[in-house]
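User: Continuing from earlier, I have the next pair ready.

Assistant: Great, send them over.

User: Here they are, in order.

Assistant: Folding the first of the pair now:
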Amino acid sequence: MKTEASEQLLLKGLAKNDAKAAETIYKENYNMVQAFILNNNGSYDDARDIFQEAMIVLYENAKNESFVLTCKITTYVYSVCRRLWLKRLQHNNRFSSQIESLEETVAVEEDLEIQERRNADFAIMERALGSLGAPCKSLLEAYYLQKKDMTEIADTFGYTNADNAKNQKYKCLMRLKKLFFSQYNIGE
């Protein structure tokens, strides 16, 4: 979690056109905004456009000396993106309800909490994968990310047949699951 002081430093950096500050804000917020846009009838291009518009709003406000941020940057960026996206949907007639009525039905804080929890879970999974070890990590990446079949994996990793590779994949998956939940329970 970022402290209030580091958030203020990020805002000051952004106001002074500091590329590092802008990059940090981007890295910490873009995936959340992209997920929101994609889950609400948008495309990757829409997510980039909306996020860019929100960064401009944040930049212009950060330059204004009278601007006081009363929430986290993440909350602010999410709120701006959400509002911009809902306006665009309404403008494109892809969304029939009035924006005002949405304020009552969709709480920004709830969406944000869900997204923050999901991001935390991904971070725990990344740490678990990192501590899994090279053979298992490579095998799971080959199967789940590179979409290789078991015969191909058996050849690549030197297993006698696809069934042995499948068996090893299962063992690796169980080790990953154990690592994930041991770290997950510590975080709670």
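And the other member of the pair:
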Amino acid sequence: MSGLFLSKGLFPSDFFRPTVEFILNCQQSDGSIPWYDGGYADPWDHVEAAMGLSIGGEWEAAERAYQWLVNTQLADGSWWAAYRENDIENGERRETNFVAYIATGVWHHYLITNNEAFLLSLWPAVQKAITFVVGLQTEHGEIHWAVDAEGDPQEDALITGCSSIYKSLECACNIATTLGFDCDHWREARDQLGEALSHKAERFDRTWESKERYSMDWFYPVLTGVIPRQHAQSHLKDKWHVFVEEGLGCRCVSDEPWVTVAESSELTMALLAAGDHARAVNLYSWLHQWRLEDGSYWTGYQFVQDVLWPDEKPTWTAGAILLAADALTEHTAASRLFTEVNMPEVSEIADGVKSFSKKL
């Protein structure tokens, strides 16, 4: 299917219900959401899929997904790179953007449900995760991309990963402020990270080949609020012809004829963040030709060989599709999470203390 044009107030619930069901059916009894049935789960993509459940009204299932993170969190606040059936699938590293993403998911779920008990119960896990991540920030502002199996920092930084952390720090500050906790240290860390992303390009990709060929390095700084709206449109237009294939979607990398549904969905939200609504609607309308009858979506399409590749229909791709649909239609109270920056004012902390003092 193609040509699904979405606008504010017109979320096609019947159309997306199979997509929600697809994620729901892949969720394991322990709450984890693997990439696909029989696959492994990683903390970042698990959260992306859980956000899709929240949008779809499957609140209990989403909360079980976040409880899985609580149950598997390590003592230092982190998670291993991947898990399979509650066993460690990849114990070689713990990635900082994976660890930080719990804050984004938890805040997203709270915005939709207004469930104060949920937010309070997840606070310890969020606090430990963000403390772990901020502890790996350098004096220059960037955050190391991972630690190895022994806990030693892998001393380099990723633009996409740090941009994701930048949004997670915003969400973590909102959680802390809502609950009446001080987050000045996280605010400072976010400011320093934003400064590094904006003005210290030399601090990224120091020990490997530049990842500028990846489309996420292009649009993630817009998606996560690093690049403000007044500069975002020109930034995206600058490389539009490099990464976007008309009628198909956004390439994963500039030098391969391969468009991917998740990146295209996230670029849709980046366009909304930039104020380019018409282009966002158009791009998103192309993506449903990669949809299957069960509501799932193929990872991507190799348009020179005319093949769907890889042979996977990931839950996180379904989650990204739902996030973009929500952003376009403003269906839920979390619809603007990735299209606006909403850092809490310091004065809001007192209100949070008053509201939650009895619960704390």
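Worth noting for the second one:
The radius of gyration is 19 Å. Strands lie at 82-84, 87-90, 93-95, 146-148, 153-154, 244-245, 249-250, 258-260, 300-302, 307-308.
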